[in-house]
Amino acid sequence: MAKYFNVIGVCRPSEHYMVSLDGRLAEIRKMIDRKYYFAMNRGRQYGKTTTLAALKDFLQEDFIVASLDFQFLSQADFETERIFSAAFARRFAAVLRRVSEAAGEALDRIKEYGDEGCALSVLFEGLSEFCGSAPKPVVLLIDEVDSASNNQVFLDFLALLRGYYLQREDFPIFQSVILAGVYDIRNLKQKVRPDLEHKHNSPWNIAASFDVNMDLEADGIAGMLAEYEADYHTGMDVRRMAQLLYEETCGYPFLVSRLCQLMDEQIPGSGEFPDRQAAWSREGLLAAEKILLMEKNTLFDSLTNKLTDYPKLQELLYSILFRGESVVYNPDNSAIDIACMFGFVKRENGTMQVANRIFETRLYNLFLSEEEVSNRTFSAAVADRNQFIQNGILNMELLLEKFVVHWGDLYHSADEKFIEENGRKFFLLYLKPIINGVGNYYIEARTRDRGRTDVIVDYRGRQYIIEIKIWRGEEYNRRGEEQLVSYLESYHARKGYLLSFNFNKNKIPGVKEISWDDKVIFEAIV
After folding, report:
1. DSSP string of 141-208?
2. pTM for this entry
3. Is the pLDDT of residue 198 over 50?
4. Which one of 66, 130, 182, 248 has the largest count of C-beta atoms within 10 Å of its C-beta?
5. Around Cβ 293, how many Cβ atoms within 10 Å?
6. How far is residue 79's CA from residue 370's CA, in Å, rounded to a whole number?
7. What is the dihedral of CA 106, 112, 118, 121, to 10 degrees?
8. Are 32 and 63 in contact (CB under 8 A)?
9. Which residues contact 439 (CB under 8 A, 6 or more apart)?
C-alpha cells in the first residue's frame, strides 16, 4: 500500500510520510542513560504518541520497555488504590508477557495483583522485585497521562515513584519513567478545576526538564517531502515548500501533516489545481490553509474550549492580537504558564507570541466573529463587498478609500483611547467579509506592537502588504514609511498600503500616493 500523510493516531515510517525522529530519539536516549524521570508534556497532536511508539522500538535492544497507555484505563479504575493497582498490574503484565521467562516469578506476582488488587505499596514491592530480577534495565512509558489528572490515587502513585527513585540503590525500580500528556505534572489539578490554577502540587518533583525540541524543522520537513517527491514527481521545489510550510505552522506537527494531506488528497483536481503538480505550489498551500482554517478538528476544538475554561488565557491572547501588547515571559504568571503548556504561544526575544500563523488567524476569526453581527463596520463591508473585486482582482485602493469614508461616518467623534484599542480590529472586520472564501490574511508578528501592525493579504495569487499604524507625529510617520518600504523589499513587492489612525485635529482624512525610489505607498488617513 502506498504511503500517505497521516493526522490520526500514531505515524509509522513504514506506512506514512513523516519527518525523521532519529535526532529526537537520540536526545531522549541521553536522558534515559542518565536515569532521568521526566514528563513529555506538549500541546494536543504534537507527536507525543508517535514519539513514544518510535522510542519503544529505539530502546528495545538495550532495555525492557513497559509501554502503557492510560486510555486503556477507565475512570472507575482510579476510584481506589486497590482498583487502580489491579488495573495497572493487568496492563503492565499484558505488555511484558514476552519477558516472563526472564523474570517469571516477579511478573507472575504482578499478574496476581491484577486479579486480586492490592495496596499501592504492595504493587511497588512487586514492581521493584521485577526490576531487580529483569535481565535489562526497565523503562516505563505512560501515554495519555492526562486521563489520571485531578486524581488523588494517581498523585499517590507518583509519590511512590518519587520515593523509590530516591532510594533506587537499595530498592530497584525503573531506570527511567516517561509520562506523556498535555498537562504539566505540577498542573494536574488544572485539568478539571481551572479555578484552582493558583494551586500546585509536586508529588513528582524529581522530574527533569524535558527540553527536547518536538517542532518539525524546515530541514526535517524537506526530508519528508523529498520522499513524497520521489514517489510522485510533482516537480515541486522541495526546499521552498518545506520553508513555506514551516513559516505557516512554525513546525506544529499536526498542522504540517494536515496541510500536506490536503495538498495531496483534496487540492489536486479542484478549481485552479488540476493535478498534483499544480497543488504543490505556494498557491496550493494557501488553498489548503483556507480549508484548514474553515474546518472543525480536535486541535481547534481544544483551542477554543480552553479559552472558555481559562478566561485569563483568552484575555492574554486578545491583548497580544488586538492591542499589540508586548507580554514579557514570566513563568510565574498563571495565564502565560497555561498558554505555554497548551502550545498556544511561544517565546520570541523574551516576549510572548501566538505560536503560529494558523493559530493566530483562527483566533482572529474567532474573536472577530463574536462582534460581526453587531458591528457597524462589518455591516458596511458586507454591503460594499461586491464592488471591490474587478476581473477577479482585489482593488485594495478602493477598499481603503471606502474604509476611510465609513470610519468618518461611524466613528468621527471617537476618542484616542477608543481608536487605539479598536482601530486595527475594525479594519479587519471590514476586510474579512470582502476576502472571505477566496483570500487569506495573516498578521506579521514581527512588526505588531501598540503602534503598528502589518497585515498580509493573499488574494488569488496576489499579495497585498498593509501597514496599520497609530499617528505619533511626522517623524514617526516617516519612519513607518521607511519600514514599509523595507518590508516591501523583503517581499519583492513594488506597492504597499499604509492605514494611519490620526488623532491630529487638523488632519485631512483621505487617500494619497507617495513615491519612494522605485516603490509606491498608497496611504489612507482616518
Report:
1. EEE-GGGGTT-HHHHHHHHHHHHHHHTTTTS---SEEEEEESS-GGGGGGTT-GGGTT----TTTTPB
2. 0.89
3. no
4. 130
5. 16
6. 41
7. 0
8. yes
9. 394, 457, 458, 459, 460
Rounded to whole angstroms, the Cα distance separating 229 from 99 reads 42
- For 57, 212, 224, 235, 236, the CA distances from 230, given in Å and listed in that order, are 26, 30, 10, 10, 11
pLDDT digits (tens, 9 = 90+) for 135-176: 899 999 999 988 776 678 988 999 999 999 999 999 999 999
Distance CA 74, CA 83 (A): 11
Q: Which of 215, 217, 218 is nearest to 241 (CA)?
A: 218
Closest CA to 120 of 175, 151, 159, 170: 159
Do residues 124 and 160 touch, judged by C-beta distance below 8 A?
yes
371-391 burial: b if 16+ Cβ within 10 Å, else e: ebeebebbbbbeebbeebbee
Q: What is the phi/psi pair of residue 292, to 5°? A: -60, -45
Kindly tell me if the per-residue pLDDT of 192 is higher than 50.
no
Cα–Cα–Cα angle for 212, 329, 299, rounded to 5 degrees: 60
Q: Are 296 and 318 in contact (CB under 8 A)?
A: no
The length of the chain is 526
* Nearest residue to 41 via CA among 238, 249, 197, 185: 185
* Side chain identity at residue 433, one-letter code: P
Residue 502: CB atoms within 10 A of its CB come to 17
As a whole number of angstroms, the distance between CA 381 and CA 472 comes to 28
User: What is the reported pLDDT for 291?
Assistant: 95
Q: What is the residue type of 333?
A: N
**Residue scoring higher pLDDT (163 or 115):** 163
Beta strand pairing call for 345-348 and 176-181 = unpaired
Q: What is the pLDDT of residue 13?
A: 95
Query: Cα 318 to chain center, whole Å?
Result: 17
* Distinct helix (H) and strand (E) counts, the chain: 19, 14
Instruction: Answer whether residue 210 shows pLDDT above 50.
Output: yes
Question: Whole-angstrom Cα distance, residue 343 to residue 41?
Answer: 10
3-state per-residue secondary structure call for 477-490: HHHHHHHHHHHHHH
Cβ atoms 493, 476 nearer than 8 A: no
308-350: per-residue pLDDT in tens? 999 999 999 998 888 878 899 998 888 998 899 899 999 888 8
Q: Are 470 and 419 in contact (CB under 8 A)?
A: yes
Q: Which residues of 186-211 are buried (b: 16+ CB within 10 A; e: fewer)?
A: bbbbbbeebeebeeeeebbebbeebe
Three-class DSSP category at 387:
helix
* C-alpha–C-alpha distance, residues 49 and 180, integer Å: 8
